[in-house]
Design brief:
Blueprint: H1 3-22, H2 31-37, H3 42-45, H4 47-70, H5 72-92, H6 96-114, H7 117-124, H8 130-158, H9 162-166, H10 168-182, H11 197-220, H12 225-245, H13 261-291, H14 296-303, H15 305-324, H16 326-344, H17 353-369, H18 372-378, H19 385-419, H20 431-468
Amino acid sequence: MKQNSQWTLLLATSMVSFMSTIDASIVNIAVPQLSRDLHAPMNEAEWVVSVYLVLICVLLIFFGKLSDQIGRISIFQIGTLVFVAGSLGCGLSVNLPMMLGMRVIQAVGASMTMATNFGIITQIFPSNRHGVALGVNSSFVQVGNIMGPGLGGLILATLSWHFIFFINVPIGLIAFAFGHKIFPKEERPKQKISMDYSGYLAYVLAIISFFVAIYWGQEIGFVKTQIIGLFVIAAVCVAAFILRENHTDKPLLDLHIFKNAGFSIGVISAMLVFAVSYFNNMIMPYYLQETLKYSSAIAGLILMSIPLLNIFSAPVGGMIGDHIGAEKVSLIALVLFLIPEAIFMTIQPSWGIVWLIIGLMLYGLANGAFQNNPMIMGNAGKQYQGIAGSIAALARNLGMSIGLSLSTSLLYFGISQKAGRRITTYPTQHPSWFVYGMHFSYRFAFAMICIALVLLISLVWHKSRKESL
């Protein structure tokens, strides 16, 4: 394939990656308006965010396995159209059931594209350019993840929440047209489609039990019998899934892929970093609008400092990674991550906005430089590229889902601890309580980055030692 066509296809796949990722975070800032316009309680309106994330986690492995058998490009293209249809339906929704139904359709399309985009990129580009190609795609994915609240604030300042979804329609159709014209033709499968449905059922039950426990536990407390029971069910289902996959001829997920330390650490560290990113998505809009009293438009502009730096650092990190290795670049990025996290867990309103912007910009720089996709895809064999791409997307979405629940749980736990009573909303009369809860949350975010850093240090050390022998 010609180099120009390669970059055109990279742009097409990255545009869809951007849309499907940003739709996991851009809705957060619109939940209050959705609640009012759709005549739904706030806690029910928040399912518009949760349903999308959880369903993507449920479907990614399925479509990753399917794409290895019938072709990644066809799954990706169909997924793009399904996502566009779901986006149009979301924008036209007039009540909460319709919105949730359209979010389900949107999530099906998003999971189809997320499960295949990395595999398509590694298939199209030669191995010596995987780093820069995946780095460009990572910049779209990561910008989509962290740009949501900022872009959402700007849209809501000038337009209605409907345009948060309508904006996907023309972009998605353009991306599909590019792909339809330039994507190489795939060979038809010679064997029948096989799927380990028993293993997949165990996996689905594990994911659903885990997230229902998390979201329900936020409302009633995590020490309740029913919440503990759901966590036990999730653990049993995970054990059943592993047992099944190790004792079937055609597993849904070949667990041998995790024997590669670089792959496993890449997955874990990616999940941790994306979880930490959701601390900003959930906490910073409140801090800017409620504590510092900025408008949604100004708050959106301030939050845009993250993706602006991310856009430049991701491809640069990919190019450097092609020369010194994705693990070493990611190690540097994780060290850089510690600076903004330290700022966020100590900042006071009296410091002024400059320190916050510095922290957000450093965060964007580190987030772009972190080469999670090249780490994961580069440590997976050619026969695993389809399922490896699904696992990479699953790690991202699991991290985002966990970060969504963990950040808010820690925030309100810290606020309640300071207030001496249970609080689950912004303490309007006591903004200092919110600042305390924010600092409490970011201490955990700092610790999560430290865990990822230790894992990556051990990986780089072992690789260097192995190369020197």
